[in-house]
Design goal:
Helices cover about 30% and strands about 25% of the residues. By secondary structure, the chain is α+β, with helices and mostly antiparallel strands. It has a domain of about 240 residues: Beta-galactosidase, Chain A, domain 5 (Distorted Sandwich). The N and C termini lie far apart (about 60 Å).
């Protein structure tokens, strides 16, 4: 076998202990009938659709650096080889030695377990599956009334891409170390294992075991250290061998449920009242943060991070991390939102496809996507001669920041936490990104050129004039043949500069603020002089060489409102197009490109006309609020929330703007779909994120026909927790510590604790000189 790689461990992350406790019920809301996926940290599984047991298990990441072919950089194969994949174990039930064919199967999912019931005329069997850290448990037991014919299960499993391995026996348990560096440990409780067939060299193995009336429990452990897995198995056997199988299963199930109870009761602010579907969507979306969390206790993963979606995109992505943090900032420990951003800073980018467990060769200079993607495409195309080992090729696995909107997420987290230490660590990253992107203004007109994929517009119709041979469905649009000057990139660059100016004021760097202000003004003027299409009443993208509009009308133009660079009269014209069915007034808000764009297909993800939850819905609402279009913002918020969850909760990041159907599996568990939590907390509950000690509330989207809404407790500053309560009879109440303030109707409030810790109302900042947060 290949030599085991050296690992550099760290302690697992410890979340804050002194978090408030919510008494809001949540478990019944998240008992759902149609989800086969379960996860905890590095281990994920899918139950088998047509048999007992599992379809597959994923363990991420493998410790070994991926093998690179000399002639080309195959990113697809590298992505596959970075995940350890186990097919199965599937179980076939035998009754009296004969196969049992199931007539019916029912399923109930919760974040902590999946329970299924299999039924035939003579046999009814119940199966519960759970994960606790790196242990998978499958508990099988006959249901009372099942025939007394002896039952047994034949199990089969195989490991993908395994070339060699070695099995060891441990008191009826078995351990195998596979050549990708992952160890398996198996043990069955309840009866003797028979007919074991282990072919470690091919990665295939199977066994049989009887299922007694009290049931049987299969435990699978995974890890990097074979000896450690063996020690855990031996301890487990000593602890559990003489216990009833129900007790063995109960040990694991209790731990799994306790972990989720702690998260939902302590980390998540509680939600009561409102409509049931709203509460269900709220807890479903807050569950996405924990579902997609990776806390990998080895270098280079020195901080936890939330992946894009653990059902597929398990790596870190430099845009998703800070954008996901915008929703995560409302959790009760702000470290959850900060940690993934800190991991980006630590490694000089995101630990992307191919990252493995070793000490990185970090990039020596700050890069952006305009430099990264062409270099990566050259490698994919075989232009470069690759080095012998992947460790000398680390730059390809470390993805730099992409769009300014992603970097803006750094500032959004600070607005919620007020953590100046975090800001001082991150400000150099923001400044370096701004300087690097500014360097791509080749003609000096104030507009930067862009040459690669824009997050969530991956394969968009926006690129049809920039890519030779553009066609629908292509997946090779990571590099443009003709650079563009994009409205969203340039307007969001103004937004980022606004962030830097305000941050410079906080840290006392006047020279930085002055320099960035000059750049902001120049780009804002160029946007209005060159990118405005007066005929359409919309901002558009430009061909960088000719300065001609590309002709594709995109919702990305609302970045001009989000950044505040659009004049009021132009903003009004753009808002009118949100109601125009030929433009952006589709049944579900808001399409990525106008509805009258040729070749539109809202059912094709990131192509043209689909609803992008972050770059479409969230961005547009924030932009509308900045310009005071509150009714339009409220309408989009509630249409989007209903699209995501009124019938049943879903978690795609792209939806059909005509039908409202998700363009991915309804339960893809995309982290970025949870960004609507930010809209709910900010504009329905009413919390406005501020980095100072003022409590600002503006619940303009709160349905006043609701009789009751309670949100909290939520950590605010120090040891002060905040709760908001809406009661149709008594009004809108804010509680902070032991004090509270009530307004008869929901309205814009600015509150502060005085020297006696009493909540007092402050005057409107527009007339008092108090800072106004956009």
């Amino acid at each position: 076998m290949p030599r085991r790689p050296a690992l550099y461990p760290r302690q697992k992350w410890e979340w804050a202990k002194d978090l408030p406790v919510s008494d809001a019920p949540w478990e019944d809301l998240l008992r759902l009938p149609d989800i086969r996926f379960l996860t905890d940290n590095q281990v994920s599984l899918w139950t088998s659709p047509d048999s007992m047991g599992l379809e597959k298990v994923w363990f991420y990441p493998v410790p070994r650096a991926p093998h690179l072919e000399v002639e080309r950089f195959d990113s697809g194969r590298i992505a596959q080889s970075s995940v350890h994949v186990l097919r199965g174990p599937r179980g076939a039930l035998m009754a009296g030695g004969k196969p049992v064919n199931w007539d019916t199967q029912s399923l109930q999912w919760s974040p902590a377990e999946i329970t299924r019931t299999f039924a035939s005329p003579d046999v009814t069997l119940r199966e519960t599956v759970t994960i606790v850290d790196d242990a998978i448990v499958v508990w099988l037991r006959p249901v009372e009334g099942t025939s007394e014919v002896p039952l047994s299960a034949a199990w089969s499993s195989s490991v993908e891409r395994t070339l060699s391995g070695s099995w060891r026996m441990h008191d009826g348990a078995r351990v195998c170390m596979h050549d990708d560096g992952i160890a398996h440990g198996w043990v069955w409780f309840g009866s003797e294992v028979t007919n074991w067939q282990g072919k470690a060299a091919s990665g295939k193995f199977g066994w049989e075991a009887s299922i007694p009336p009290q049931g049987g429990v299969l435990v699978l452990l995974l890890g990097y250290d074979q000896a450690a897995v063996e020690r855990r198995l031996e301890a487990m056997i000593a602890q559990c061998s003489n216990r009833p199988t129900a007790d063995v299963a109960g040990l694991f199930l209790t731990k799994a449920h306790d972990a989720w109870q702690w998260y939902m009761k302590r980390m998540v602010p509680g939600l009561k009242g409102a409509d049931e579907w709203v509460r269900r969507l709220y807890y479903y979306q807050t569950a996405l943060h924990k579902i997609n969390l990776y806390d990998i206790p080895y270098e280079p993963f020195v901080y936890p991070y939330t992946c894009p979606w653990k059902t597929g995109a398990v790596w870190q992505w430099s845009w998703n991390t800070p954008m996901n943090s915008i929703a995560e900032r409302w959790l009760n420990d702000p470290a959850w939102a900060e940690s993934g951003i800190e991991l980006l800073r630590e490694n000089g980018g995101a630990l992307n496809i191919g990252a493995s467990l070793h000490r990185l060769r970090k990039p020596r200079q700050f890069r952006d996507v305009n430099e990264y993607l062409p270099a990566l495409q050259d490698a994919i195309g075989g232009v470069k001669n690759l080095p012998a080992t992947a460790r000398q090729f680390d730059w390809a696995f470390i993805m730099p920041h992409t769009t300014p909107l992603g970097v803006h997420g750094i500032w959004e987290v600070f607005r919620r936490t007020g953590d100046e230490d975090y800001l001082r660590r991150q400000l150099p990253e923001m400044v370096a990104y701004e300087a690097r992107l500014t360097s791509h203004d080749a003609d000096g007109d104030g507009l930067v050129e862009y040459e690669g994929m824009v997050d969530e517009y991956d394969y968009s119709l926006r690129w049809r004039t920039a890519v030779n041979g553009y066609k629908k469905g292509t997946e090779s649009l990571i590099r443009f043949d003709r650079p563009l000057e994009l409205i969203d990139i340039n307007a969001q660059l103004c937004l980022l500069r606004e962030d830097i100016i305000e941050a410079a004021g906080i840290v006392g760097d006047r020279n930085l603020a002055k320099r960035i202000r000059q750049r902001l003004n120049k780009t804002a003027k160029a946007i209005n002089d060159l990118m405005w299409d007066d005929t359409r009443g919309w901002y558009g993208d430009l061909d960088a060489a000719t300065h001609e509009l590309t002709g594709v009308c995109s919702i990305a133009a609302f970045s001009a409102l989000m950044s505040g660079v659009a004049p009021a009269d132009r903003a009004e014209r753009m808002v009118r197009l949100l109601e125009d069915p030929a433009a952006f007034g589709t049944p579900y808000p808001v399409p990525s490109v106008a509805a009258d764009t040729p070749d539109l297909d809202p059912g094709h993800i990131t192509y043209g006309g689909d609803v992008l939850i972050t770059s479409g819905v969230w961005l547009t609402v924030v932009a509308l609020v900045r310009y005071g279009f509150l009714e339009e913002a409220r309408r989009i918020i509630w249409k989007a929330l209903r699209m995501l969850g009124e019938t049943a909760p879903t978690s795609s990041y792209s939806y059909n703007s005509m039908t409202g159907a998700p363009n991915m599996d309804p339960h893809t568990f995309c982290s970025q779909s949870a960004i609507t939590l930010d809209l709910f907390v900010r504009f329905v509950v009413g919390f406005v994120p501020r980095y100072d000690d003022i409590i600002e509330c503006w619940p303009f989207a709160l349905p006043t026909e609701w009789e009751h809404l309670e949100f909290g407790p939520m950590t605010w500053r120090g040891d002060v927790d905040v709760t908001v309560v809406w009661d149709s009879k008594s009004g809108y109440t804010v509680r902070a510590g032991r004090s509270e303030f009530t307004a008869r109707e929901p309205r814009h409030l600015w509150l502060a604790l005085d020297q006696r810790d009493r909540l007092v109302e402050l005057p409107d900042p527009s007339v008092s000189g108090m800072p106004v947060m956009t």
